[in-house]
């Protein structure tokens, strides 16, 4: 049996929570090892947030260049090279990877690259390029994240579809990209590839896009995408796939609709990386969906083993994973920070952006919470007019019997930044009147909050 190497802390997976905890504890003098299959810095900077938003930025620039005449500039014969877009994206990722590697090196943690699995409680065997290393620690933190789901659709696996990972690495432009799934990833990449020059059809099994949002949001998202000639097919149940992505691929629905494309992108959700890693040998239990069971302190069912980030069922955002780090770090310092009562915002990077924090109307109604609402079209915000970005709206929910803000949704330019202003008001438990009566600089998008909250009855 291989010699067992002992550490104070062992982090299984180098995502946002895991790598931050590891560097923090290594700097504090602990002996720390991070087991990572190969994505230095985690999936966010390698295959998810950073590369996707870099590609989206290239698509925004191409779109803006084609609109140059609206702003008084003539730009003729605009062309896009997906090969150059891919190279720019790869360059941004490489810089981020190098930055993370330098942080690891400076902290003093030991990065072990290879496939790992539990072989006994708090003990992981790692298949490295130089054989197997067996590591154990007083405390173990699992931060393995999720991977794209390829649903059990007839013919889909055989068609060798691409996921967001391969989509970000394409060098040749698809002539017609079929997107299976109308969620956030499908909308972001669908719009981006349309702007880069591909024909795009989004095929969604539900009756509307972004089904977790209110119907007015779904309707507005539909208008935005269709306004850029992204084809949207809703209610596509009983799909069957034939052909091969990258060559010629077809999707047919039970009601007889037929879609032909050159590439097929699957954007149908994500599943946790919990299979085949020996969790049963570690005493770590899963819930019915396959995520690791954790309590409010992110402790698993195994003694001195925690799980963080998406693999623990945390909302699938890097900033949520970072807060998981804060929770486990708090315990190491004798604190009692928990997952309860967290206000976790998010932003969807279509153009214009969609951002939300707190409850929407659907959630408030399902929870029996009474509320007042206010809505403001972006078209009346002066800054939106000067930018010629007038699509979308802001919407706020305020408690019926108090002046506390329950939630905020926005589809519009700079939505993520404006949403953060509302979030800080909610964190400070300030009344909505603080935003109604606050003095915001003119002309900014944020001053629209004056008008929005002025509409609360």
Describe this protein's structure.
- Its cofactor is FAD.
- Belongs to the class-I pyridine nucleotide-disulfide oxidoreductase family.
- Keywords: FAD, Flavoprotein, NAD, Nucleotide-binding, Oxidoreductase.
- FAD binds at residues 53, 116, 316-319.
- This is Mercuric reductase.
- By secondary structure, the protein is of the alpha/beta class.
- The chain folds into three domains: 4-148 and 271-332, FAD/NAD(P)-binding domain; 157-268, FAD/NAD(P)-binding domain (3-Layer(bba) Sandwich); 352-454, 2-Layer Sandwich (Enolase-like, domain 1), CATH 3.30.390.30.
- Helix content is 32%, strand content 24%.
- The chain is built from 14 helices and 21 strands.
- The strands form five sheets. Strands 1, 2, 3, 4, 5, 6 and 16 form a seven-stranded mixed beta sheet that branches. A five-stranded antiparallel beta sheet has the order 17-18-21-20-19, sandwiched between helices.
- Helix 1 (16-27) runs parallel beside helix 9 and helix 3 (49-66) runs antiparallel to helix 4.
- The longest helix is centred in the first third of the chain and has 26 residues, at 82-107.
- It starts with a strand and ends with a helix.
- The model has no long low-confidence stretch (mean pLDDT 97).
């Amino acid at each position: 049996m291989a010699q067992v190497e002992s550490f104070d802390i062992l982090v299984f997976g180098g995502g946002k929570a895991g790598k931050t905890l590891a560097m923090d504890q290594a700097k504090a003098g602990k002996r720390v090892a991070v087991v990572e299959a190969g994505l230095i810095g985690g999936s966010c900077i390698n295959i998810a947030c950073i590369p996707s938003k870099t590609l989206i930025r290239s698509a925004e620039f191409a779109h803006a260049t084609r609109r140059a005449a609206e702003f008084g500039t003539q730009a003729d014969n605009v062309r896009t090279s997906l090969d150059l877009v891919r190279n720019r994206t790869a360059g941004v990722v490489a810089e981020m990877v190098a930055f993370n590697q330098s942080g690891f090196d400076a902290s003093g943690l030991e990065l072990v690259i290879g496939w790992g699995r539990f072989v006994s409680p708090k003990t992981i065997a790692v298949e490295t390029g130089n054989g197997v290393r067996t590591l154990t620690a007083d405390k173990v933190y699992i931060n393995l994240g999720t991977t794209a789901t390829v649903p059990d659709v007839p013919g889909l696996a055989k068609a060798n579809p691409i996921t967001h990972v391969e989509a970000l690495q394409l060098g040749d432009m698809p002539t017609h990209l079929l997107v299976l799934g109308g969620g956030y990833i499908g909308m972001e990449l669908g719009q981006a590839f349309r702007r880069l020059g591909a024909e795009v059809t989004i095929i969604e099994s539900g009756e509307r896009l972004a089904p977790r949002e209110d119907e007015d949001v779904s309707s507005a998202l539909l208008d935005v995408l269709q306004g850029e000639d992204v084809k949207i097919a809703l209610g596509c149940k009983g799909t069957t796939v034939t052909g091969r992505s990258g060559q010629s691929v077809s999707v047919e629905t039970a009601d007889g609709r037929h879609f032909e494309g050159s590439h097929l992108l699957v954007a149908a959700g994500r599943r946790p990386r919990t299979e085949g890693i020996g969790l049963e040998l570690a005493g770590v239990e899963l819930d019915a969906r396959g995520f690791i069971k954790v309590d409010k302190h992110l402790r698993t069912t195994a003694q001195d083993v925690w799980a963080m980030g998406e693999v623990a069922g945390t909302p699938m955002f890097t900033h949520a994973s970072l807060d998981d780090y804060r929770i486990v770090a708090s315990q190491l310092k004798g604190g009692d920070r928990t997952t309860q009562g967290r206000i976790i915002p998010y932003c969807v990077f279509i153009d214009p952006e969609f951002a939300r924090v707190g409850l929407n109307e659907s959630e408030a109604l399902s929870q029996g919470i009474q509320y007042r609402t206010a809505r403001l079209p972006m078209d009346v915000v002066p800054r939106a007019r000067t930018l010629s970005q007038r699509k979308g709206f802001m919407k706020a929910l305020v408690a019926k019997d108090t002046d506390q803000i329950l939630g905020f949704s926005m589809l519009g330019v700079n939505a993520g930044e404006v949403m953060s202003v509302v979030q800080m008001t909610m964190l400070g438990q300030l009344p909505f009147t603080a935003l109604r009566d606050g003095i915001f600089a003119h002309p900014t998008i944020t001053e629209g909050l004056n008008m929005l909250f002025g509409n609360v009855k």
